[in-house]
Amino acid sequence: MSYRGAKSGVVNDLVLLDGSGEQEIVEALAARHRADEIYTYIGEVLLVVNPYRLISGLYGSSKIRSYVSKKLYERPPHVYGIAEMAYRSMMLNTSNECVIITGESGAGKTEASKTVMEYVAAMASKSKQVQHIKDELLQTNPLLEAFGNAKTRRNDNSSRFGKYFAINFLYGDPSGGSISTYLLEKTRVTHQQEGERNFHIFYQLLSDSRRRGDFKLSGSPGDYNFFGDPGAAKVRSIDDARDFSETTRAMDFIGMGGDEQNAIFAILAAILHLGNVEFESRGRDASDIVNARAVSEAASLLGVNERDLSTALTHRTVKSGTESVRTSLSAEKAAFARDSLAKSLYGRLFDHIVARCNETIHTEQFSTCIGVLDIYGFEILGVNGFEQLCINYTNEKLHALFIELTLKGEQAEYKRENISWVPVEFFDNTPIVELVDRRGGLFSLIDEQSIFPQATDATLFQKFQSNIRARELSVPRGAAPGEFEIRHYAGTVLYNTEGMLEANKDTLFPDLVLVVYHTARNPIAKDLFADHPAVDAGRKTNKRPPTTCMQYKKSVADLMDTLRSNNQHYIRCIKPNESKRAGMFEGDMVITQVRYLGIAENLIVRRAGYAFRMTYDEFAAKFKCAVAGTDRWEPNTRKATEDILRKGGVKHYELGRTKVFIKDAKDLLRIEDARRNFLETAAEYLPEDDGLIGADRVIAFNAKAVRVPLLLVVGSKGLYLYDPDGRQTEHHAAFSEVDSLAFNEKEGWIAALSTYPGKHQEDPEVQVTYLMENIHISEVRNWVEVLSNVGVDLPLTASSSYPMDAVDGPAYKANLKLVGSGALNLPAIRNGGGAPAGGCCVIA
């Protein structure tokens, strides 16, 4: 693999950039984006710039095969490269891995997570049982997208929840998995901003004429109040009818039968009918339902008594000591009760969907796992409330973990390798994390205020001001009531306390819970509230029901523990423009995200050490061909590495226990460019109908049966040996005539055992051994693997010796003379020999 993009000419790894400033990073990403090179590395971190279109040839089974068993630096940057690294680490080390995907809405996180899962699932064996498990895992994606995703102004398929998907493995094959979800945006059920949609599943349901009839629905989103902007219902990139078919197929596949599906769709329809229930005031503190038909339809679909539901929507039972008093609700409070029921029904239904997925994919038989985290990025909206505080807190926690583990990993490696290390200062966002989750912090104060019946969002704001230091939380000049700022590591966010207490309490009046739980004939609707505190009226406990803050803080802490216990791999997704247009790259917008994601900081940390590191075995095998004068076998790869560095003019490096560390990126590029030129030259020698797999400098017989330095070129059709100056072809062995490859790793040779038709009747077959010395077997293994992917299977076996005629010149010549006429015809060198005419090649 070249260290530069084939089209852009920009380095594939930003560590190799001359500079490390934000502007230089953005310019490099822009150049690569223009060339459809949407993936870029920073060391082992992958950056993805959303192209907003499908790039031909970038995905699929053949592309997946090209990354199997490849090191990160051996192939161009890709999600498949990160997935392969995670899978191979799991297999080699029997370790648990995780891929952490972050970025703002519309940056491509969901697609990246699906691509990781696609690659990992492709590693499964072909047995029917394993294939069925793989399909079950993949079928959860369309189902969770239908119920958890929505069209926003920034993204047509925005995930409105966080997800950690753990894929379990047994001996390298997927055996099951588990899904954990975080903070579903339930408020979207009842309210959406202009230009946005409700969750996809509602529109999918309306697209099915048969289902509409079953659940008394019209086909027009404008008929339902819970669709805030009916004009946003039609989205060019979304086919609701097609997606609904995919959703129901997924439900079938994971074991949701027809009755269960109908019960789920009935709840969805009931939510839409509930949204059309309106109230009018009767006096100061009472209300009546205006449109009884909407209540009737909702009650019928939930399987509850219409009168009971109407009463629960307009009244509330309040306990005073041992007595219960029913009080009327004003029109405003009745509307609040209606919305609370709708949000609670949907939130608990979503949990039911996740639980059913987990039941299907659960397994007790697994040895390792790969987790994929797809979670909200930083959100800075026009109005930022409780949900944004939770989301941004999570990102602060993830950023703190990223910096901690990245820096710790660097230090640990330098210590293991006995490399000197000067600690680098970096932004410590621990105070921001603690501002939110410490005792007496924001979450604690929100919980404290949620206890008091008389507390309001205004009193919460006062608590913030009196308990939080000004340098952590400030009130800007001219701020509206309830507004305050937090200086996150990604930037300053203006929050408003309006709605925070209610979002934390997530209030649902017990009357509504009991109506659904005790009387619902819809089996799923009844089960949704089985764990609600209001159900067990006889239970005497002083324990408060958990608030959203309490639950979310614990779930994030559990997530961090899971991530810490695994080996982490990072994918940072970047949104290039607000218009979701292909080919548009807005530098100002990207530089903001570069700052949000801590990319420059990551680059500085990586740069503070060494721009490049590689084991001696890998380095010697990869770069031996890049410098002249490496014609003698050196079994000590540390010495071989040092020899290559010296001959290549590299000065700024250190040798560790098992790895070489190169400080200056330009030194690496000098050697890499030399290797690229060597391979491009080798490709020019091949016949027109063959393509390059690899090449190296070896010792072998020339046409005169004298062992001399030669150029070995491996094509997709055969092995070619050329003189080093490219004047003539010395030998050629078509793969159709190569029986096997023997090798000796310690002595550094391979022997191609070939069989040809003989010239004489008494010798119908003649065996010729092409012995090539001064070669690292790791390179040969790579070639054999690539050849296998293109349909050429070469047995590769270890051997302690080779046939004597392989080094006996006269015997070798005698064997060649026995080969039948025409069997050893040598292909002509392209361009007539000598220096290549130019052009380029694809380096496998």
UniProtKB/TrEMBL annotation:
GO biological process: actin filament organization; actin filament-based movement; endocytosis
Residues of the Myosin motor domain: 9-676
Annotated spans, Actin-binding: 556-578
Pfam families associated with the record: Myosin_head
SUPFAM superfamilies referenced in this protein's UniProt entry, alphabetically: P-loop containing nucleoside triphosphate hydrolases
Gene3D superfamilies xrefs: 1.10.10.820, 1.20.58.530, 6.20.240.20, Kinesin motor domain, Myosin VI head, motor domain, U50 subdomain
One MF term in the entry's GO annotations: ATP binding
Entry superkingdom: Eukaryota
Gene Ontology cellular component terms for the protein in this record: cytoplasm; myosin complex; plasma membrane
UniProt-annotated binding residues for ATP: G103, E104, S105, G106, A107, G108, K109, T110
Keywords attached to this entry: Actin-binding, ATP-binding, Motor protein, Myosin, Nucleotide-binding
Family: Belongs to the TRAFAC class myosin-kinesin ATPase superfamily. Myosin family.
Name this polypeptide is given: Unconventional myosin-Ia
Organism: Hondaea fermentalgiana
